[in-house]
Amino acid sequence: MSIDAGRPALKGAILAAGRGTRMAAFGEPLPKCLMPIGNRPLIEFQIDIMRSLGIDEIVILIGHKGYEITKVLGDGSRLGVKLTYVEQTSIFGIAHAVGRLEPHIDRPFLLMLGDIFFLPGDLARMVEIFHAQGEGAVLAVKHEADPAAVRKNFSVTLSAEGLVTRVIEKPRYVHNPLKGVGLYIFGLAIFDAIRRTPRTAMRDEYELTESIQVMIGDGHPVRVSQSVVDDINLTYPTDLLRCNLMLAAKHPDHRLVDSSARVNPQARISESVIGANVRVQSPISIRRTLILSNSVVTTTSDLEDMVVAPHGVFDCRPQSVA
Questions:
Q1: What's the rounded Cα separation, in Å, for the pair 224 and 162?
Q2: CA 163 to chain centre
Q3: CB atoms within 10 A of CB 105
Q4: Can you tell me whether residue 113 is helix, strand or coil?
Q5: Using 50, 70 and 90 to split pLDDT, how confident is the model at 321?
Q6: Model confidence pLDDT, tens digit, residues 150-208
Q7: Which of 32, 120, 178, 297 is most buried as measured by Cβ atoms within 10 A of its Cβ?
Q8: What gap in Å lies between CA 97 and CA 95, rounded to an integer?
Q9: How many helices (H) does the chain have, and how many strands (E)?
Q10: How far apart are CA 69 and CA 34, in angstroms?
């Protein structure tokens, strides 16, 4: 199915080879795309977004512990899509990772970075922009008031006509608030650009932003679409908590408790997410807290701004400044 009956649906691609090394306090690092958001793996939200755009064929790049991803997702039929897995055997940057997908992609595709949680806006508009120009690329962006957030991603400069003229990976000096959010639509010309992408001096990697710059230099149209309401890169447990609280806030009682959890009937739960097979033994207050599946909570102290896992607890309270 396509959102435009006159055109074939885009293909989907997800880069899911990243390791959750900075989540290591909670056990052996897993692919970050499996981190739980509202008691579902992050990558399932991304697949849902793609399916809503008529995308039913998705290529997933896997790496460290990729078998965990295949075990969770299988062939995709449970989620209404067909999945193809490609293994990443070496790590040389995002452009190199996208290049690994070329043999499996035969038409324009929507690319997501598998460690980013998106709150989508009008993504159909992003697809419309791409179809209108017929080739090149469309980058999802948002106006970002915090320069530090732009420095962690990439900045975008536009011409008076609305075409992208420059993309800068992790700029040290931020000159405009337009930030890329890790979601793209590419035509097949991106693969030619990747083949001619040099390694960067600072990170010694093949950056996707450099490949986009090559496309611009070749005369391919690259535009932007403000189609994402918010984006959170899952790096630390605090990011995981923020995503879960964002999702919990959409429910009438501002909480999500898995039906298999066993919580002391006198415990007070607000603005929290509690996973499968959790046990909360004492009548404590749980506020702004994520309790991951299979955790056993024995403390008699209240929990606030915490991430609790079977192998540890991470304090996400704002640090006081001396």
A1: 8
A2: 25
A3: 22
A4: strand
A5: very low
A6: 898 899 999 999 999 999 988 999 888 899 999 999 999 999 999 999 877 566 678 99
A7: 32
A8: 5
A9: 8, 24
A10: 7
Token pair recorded at residue 301: 């102290």
Class of the 11-233 domain?
alpha beta
Residue 113, CB-side half-sphere exposure with 13 Å CA sphere: 22
Using the CB atoms, write b or e for 13-51: b if 16+ within 10 Å: bbbbbbbbeebeebeeebbbbbbbbbbebbbbbbbebbb
Residue with tokens 């896997």: 62
Residue of 294, 295, 299 whose CA lies nearest to 281: 299
8-state DSSP, 226: -
On average, the pLDDT of the chain sits at: 91
Instruction: Tell the burial category of 118 from Cβ atoms under 10 Å away from its Cβ (0-12, 13-18, 19+).
Output: buried
Instruction: Please tell me the predicted confidence (pLDDT) of residue 23.
Output: 65
d(C-alpha 39, C-alpha 125), whole Å? 29
Give the total residue count for the chain: 322
Q: Distance between CA atoms of 65 and 18, rounded to whole angstroms?
A: 10
pLDDT-based confidence at residue 293 (cuts at 50, 70, 90): very high
Burial 58-97 (b: 16+ CB within 10 A, else e): bbbbbbbbbeebeeebeebeebebebbbbebeeeebbbbb
Q: Which of 211, 216, 192 is nearest to 133 (CA)?
A: 216
Where on the phi/psi map is residue 298: left (φ > 0), alpha (ψ -120 to 50), or beta? alpha
